[in-house]
Amino acid sequence: MKKAVFLDRDGVIIEQVAYLSSPEQVALIPGAAEALRLIHRHGDLAVVISNQSGVGRGYFTAAAVDAVHARIQELLAAEGEAVDAFYYCPHAPEEKCSCRKPSPEMIHRAARRFGIDVGSSLMLGDRMSDLECGVNAGCARNVLVLTGYGAEQEPKVRAAGFSSARDMLAAVADFYGESSE
Ligand SMILES: [Mg+2]
Ligand SMILES: [Zn+2]
Hints:
By secondary structure, this protein is of the alpha/beta class. It has helices at residues 32-41, 53-56, 62-77, 105-114, 128-137, 150-159, 168-175, and strands at 4-7, 45-51, 85-89, 122-125, 141-145, 163-165.
């Protein structure tokens, strides 16, 4: 079975922008394409698992989310890379849906679709709820990246027993036992 690196989107693979909704706002986090290259060289998958409550709150449309994801793929393609799949929860918290992180539902959906062994996979996020999602899904490791909200979340997240890494590339390199320098 394949492994996956599950990734939060905002603050992990692209720079954090509150309620980011336009392709022009998309900027890759440095090292993101290299991290994807490492994942793919190991024959694994990179799957984005994202909460986009701006849709449910009426701030932007699902089509805008699709346009943002297309822009991410376009920027990655320029570096010969791509995300394998994007999953997102479009609901506002008040909707009490079953998919919003920290629910593991989106990871379970991806695992069924691609035949992923979640128990040997990695979850990366810049917030506690991302790591709780990974724990709830049964991921082997759940690591905080210090990009996005990661630096401000670090004390709380480390107190809860999670480890952290400088960024997506450092976390992925560590997962595979390689150096990111
Ligand atoms: Mg985030
Ligand atoms: Zn949802």
